[in-house]
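Fold it.
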Amino acid sequence: MSDVAHLPPYLLAFPGPLRDRLVAAVLTGAKTATTGLLAAYEAEGEPLPAAGSRSALIDSDGRPVAVVEVTEVRVVPLGEVDLRHAVDEGEGHRSVAEWRAGHERFWHGEQLRALLGDPAFTVDDATPVVCERFRVVEPLDPVAAAVAGELRLLEPSVRSSRQEAGRLLDPEFTEVGASGRRWRREELLAALPDLPGGDARGARYEPSAMVGVLLAPDVVHLTYETVAAGRRAYRSSLWRRAADDSGAPWRMYHHQATPAAEERQEPGTGGRKDSDEGRPTRRFPARDERDPALTTDRRRW
């Protein structure tokens, strides 16, 4: 594993739900491009990234999770960003207009305006933006990679896309659903768009209490809870390192969901006790438990 202490941080959005989604997209290979405002670099007095430069990708909790290398940098007017770049940002955008609408919500947000020192900042077609392309040189944390895949599979834009969901499922994948039904990979991919969580306008799965355990160098076990439409479930997944490069570097091998018996839960425990002594275990804190000092950045999306 690389020594990343000397590398500058690669920060996507601000810590929280958006950064979680963007980091997950990078770690699963879905996101290979990003866009920032030239004005943000100027406001912070930082030089533009250069092709060949390497950085440590940082998650919402301030941990380095991968080494990334910039492969291309272009400064263009916002109105000249093309569809290929929008798609390669890995968020399921199907048009430049859709991509731009999402970015404008971020660029016109209070945090970014505060960074720029302009409470009325707005963009237009002529606004200079920095378009980067990058690649993951080295993932640093197998558990973080598995968590990234799990979070991606909870995204409606991924669940509704056979191609994107397929990148994250192992060829030998099986699932035992909350109903007790056993699913094979192809069965699930065919049904996933019509299952709960597949429509951005409907109820989506909200995960919590996620714990990751490295069982072996190529196997990660995740446990967590979800709530969707008021229904809570306990979930358990096995992720294993992919043997080829036809999809994500880590893929879900098995998943099981069990409906929660609410009256049996112990407050704050999710009804579980720790049983992973002796194994490398990572717990992912709730967003309101994260260090407030990590909320003072950034520019890329």
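The radius of gyration is 20 Å.
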